[in-house]
Amino acid sequence: MEKVKIGIIGAGGITQYAHIPCFQKLEGVEVVAICDPNELKLKEVTEKSGIPQKFTDYQKLVSSEEIDAVIVCTPNAFHREQAVAALRSGKHVLCEKPVALNSKEANEILKTAEEKNKKFMVAFCHRFDNTTQFLKKSIDRGEFGEIYYAKASYLRRRGIPGLGGWFTTKKFSGGGPLIDCGVHMLDTAIWLMGSPEPVEVIGSAYNKFKTEATDGGWPPSSSRTGDKYSGTFDVEDLATSFIKFANGATLFLEASWAGNSEQGLFLRLFGTKSGARVGQSEEEGKMGEKGLKVFTGKQGDLMDISPILPDVNPYEKQAAHFIECIRENKEPITKPKEILNVVKIIEAIYLSAEKGEEVKL
Ligand SMILES: NC(=O)c1ccc[n+]([C@@H]2O[C@H](COP(=O)([O-])OP(=O)(O)OC[C@H]3O[C@@H](n4cnc5c(N)ncnc54)[C@H](O)[C@@H]3O)[C@@H](O)[C@H]2O)c1
Predict the structure, then answer these.
(1) Most exposed among 9, 68, 99, 306, judged by the fewest C-beta atoms under 10 Å?
(2) Minimum CA distance residue for ligand 1 atom 40
């Protein structure tokens, strides 16, 4: 393969912010096509990025013989059909998180990828954060011992992504901050815990801040040309949950779009040899050196370690990894079982919240 040729479905925020610049930067890679039903956005994005081909129908993009790999960056409800269509057309697929709305849809995608023998990866970009990479290496070397508890939070104080766009409309998103943001922390936490098997989940979901949401208030409207906001808000604005694993480990997970709390991304790991705290609050700035502390000990004395880490752009690392998997026939970092477990847990949290009781997996 001379060049890896990429087609992108969805020309919205994450495509403009992360995928176009990161894939265009890579040597031996060309972003040849982009698809979006919103013609105004399509025009703006192709003019700015120089991507040569534009489509309003994703079927035309996935059936293009020139394309080797497709990136799915559309509202969550379209991931299944677009990922499956791309895989069936013989393309490798990088799919934005959440992989799909539920485990049935996720299973269909994963089965198709296996049948077609194509690479399928979920864009869990936080696996490529410098802090996550540092922790994963330390954990794999045994420096944390057994990780038996973790606490993961993704908290926005006032960050409801547009009142009545697809994010706040359940049939397009599948849910609120849990499936949108919590999914990242859930994946990162479980991956660092060694991907234990989830067995039981209890969860609650709240919707208290609807009146404080503003039309298109977040993310910045600059990436949302032509989007319309209907006012629908039938998802949660905060979800809390407790997950038990077959090896006895437990995870507390919380995710909000709005709440009277400090905001940021936080992860705490409790291991028998060491623990860690990763934080990215407003005070601490970017996820990185300041936010990471390792709690450990040496010969009976307790020690805190604050590692100095290289600055990385996780989206660039993610793009490079996906291309490497295609070129060198490697297995993507997100394994099918891990992808499925994350969806199953989210599904179970919503079910538990609805039924008011714990859910066994
Ligand atoms: N990994 C991350 O850090 C991250 C960050 C933001 C969003 N995301 C994910 O990326 C996906 C897109 O989010 P976004 O913030 O870019 O949303 P967005 O609303 O900014 O963009 C979505 C785009 O998809 C287009 N679209 C809608 N239906 C389509 C269809 N049937 N075919 C083709 N295009 C279609 C819309 O016109 C829009 O331009 C979501 O799954 C979201 O969860 C991931």
Answers:
(1) 306
(2) 75
Q: Which atom of ligand 1 is nearest to the CA of 79?
A: 41
Structure confidence by residue, pLDDT tens digits, 227-256? 667 778 899 999 999 999 999 999 999 999
Cis amide prior to 314 (ω within 30 degrees): no
pLDDT digits (tens, 9 = 90+) for 110-147: 999 999 999 999 999 999 999 999 999 999 999 999 99
Q: Whose CA is nearest to atom 28 of ligand 1?
A: 74
Question: For ligand 1, what atom is nearest to the CA of residue 74?
Answer: 24
Strands (E), the chain: 4-9, 29-35, 53-55, 69-72, 92-95, 120-122, 147-155, 198-206, 238-245, 250-256, 264-271, 275-281, 292-298, 301-305, 359-360
What is the CATH code of the structural domain delimited by 126-312? 3.30.360.10
If one residue of 74, 154, 218, 228 were mutated to test the ligand 1 pocket, choosing by the most ligand atoms within 8 A of its CB, it would be 74
Residue with tokens 């714990």: 358
Q: Closest ligand 1 atom to the C-alpha of 11?
A: 39
Q: Report CA(20)–ligand 1 centroid distance (Å).
A: 13
Q: Which atom of ligand 1 is nearest to the CA of 125?
A: 1
3-state secondary structure of 134: helix
Q: What whole-number distance in Å separates Cα of residue 331 and Cα of residue 118?
A: 10
Helices assigned H by DSSP within 123-174: 130-140, 170-173
For the chain, residues classed under CATH 3.30.360.10 are 126-312
- For residues 235 and 175, is the Cβ–Cβ distance under 8 A? yes
Rounded distance, CA 30 to CA 160, Å?
34
Task: Pinpoint the residues of the chain covered by CATH 3.40.50.720.
Answer: 4-123+316-323
Q: What is the pTM of this model?
A: 0.96
- The CATH fold of domain 4-123+316-323: Rossmann fold (3.40.50)
Paired tokens of 127? 């696996």
Using the atom order of ligand 1, give the atom closest to the CA of residue 225. Answer: 39
DSSP string across 52-84: -EEESSHHHHHT-TT--EEEE-S-GGGHHHHHH
Tell me the best of 14, 43, 95, 125 to mutate to test the pocket of ligand 1, counting ligand atoms within 8 Å of each CB and taking the most.
14
